Amino acid sequence: MSTRENPWLDEHQQRVWRQWLLAHDRLNAALSQQLSLNSDLSLPDFGVLVALSEAAGHRLRSAELATTLGWERSRLSHHLGRMEKRGLILREQSPSDGRGAYAVITDEGMRQIVEVAPGHANTVKELMFMPLSPEDLDTLDRLTSGVLARVAEVSDEA
Question: What pTM does this model have?
């Protein structure tokens, strides 16, 4: 029976789906709390700064940054504006393409990410990975990779 014939989740699927959503929400809440206790950064700020700090030249085209973060371009634009006002990033026009813009991490943004990242990584390890055995981690890796591949496949078909 296809999903078109029966769109409803069975009881087991429903329980796992709700656990997945609850775990995601609670993990994000805990990570947000850790960041707010140790910095003025939000979880979205942290994601932007990580992406820029790891990019060549500490800069990315806005479109590439939006893709990396999985955000809509309008959401990214508004968020970058707020971060720019706080001195964490700056936006530069592309010298070769007047339509393109780059997001660039500032010295202040780099200072903050370097300061906050160890505590964030420790929280991720404690909450996400400590409860898992090496085999569990391999299984989770395989499962999340499969889900992401399917989402990409369905998105490409649309």
Answer: 0.89
DSSP state of 56: G
CB 68 within 8 A of CB 51: yes
Using one digit for the tens of pLDDT, what is the confidence trace for 100-130? 789 999 999 999 999 999 999 999 999 999 9
Total domains in the fold of the chain:
1
Range of the domain at 51: 11-130
Q: How do residues 34-72 score in pLDDT, each as one tens digit? A: 999 999 999 999 999 999 999 999 999 999 999 999 999
| CATH code, domain carrying 56 | 1.10.10.10
Least Cα distance to 94 among 84, 106, 86, 102 occurs for 102
Q: What is the largest CA-CA distance in the chain?
A: 56
